[in-house]
Amino acid sequence: MLVVRIATAVFAALLASACASHVTRVSAPQGAFDLDAFLAAHQLPAEGGIRADRIGRAEGASYHVVQVLGSEHPHHHLTHDLTVFVLRGRGVLTRGGGSRTRLEAGDTAIVPRGEPHWFASEGAFPAVSMVVFTPPLDAPDAVPLEER
């Protein structure tokens, strides 16, 4: 009977730890931070849109937390390649040639400079990504496209 109680207690503890919410931490040049706390301090406007916050810079790249609720406007970047790591949420990346790729937390996309693209989130919450600009983004270089 004692073995059954111990096994039950161990199983309950394992189940509780498996159901506990995961804290996403980002280790940036200025130090590590909790993504939830960062997002609470850097909120999108209630109507949605896009928000990009630089969290680090190195000689060859800059690092940004980007939130999208709704859709970006179609655009391309003149001098930057992008690597996008989706941290939260989901949506669709559309490329200028018309290809559409569904992305969700854990997915990565590479967008070469000059390639038309835009991202549209799905659901009621923003999609959150870590975006690496190569070379470092010092000034906006997004060029709007005429139409989707």
Characterization of this structure:
The chain is an alpha+beta fold and 148 residues long. It has a single domain, classed as Sandwich (Jelly Rolls), CATH 2.60.120. The chain is 17% helix and 46% strand. It contains two helices and twelve strands, in the order H-E-E-H-E-E-E-E-E-E-E-E-E-E. The protein has helices spanning 2-19, 35-41; strands at residues 25-28, 31-34, 49-57, 62-69, 75-77, 81-88, 90-95, 100-104, 108-111, 117-122, 127-134, 142-144. It has a five-stranded antiparallel beta sheet with strand order 3-4-11-6-9, with no helix packed on it. A hairpin with a 4-residue loop joins strand 3 and strand 4. The radius of gyration is 19 Å and the shape is globular. It starts with a helix and ends with a strand. The model has no long low-confidence stretch (mean pLDDT 87).
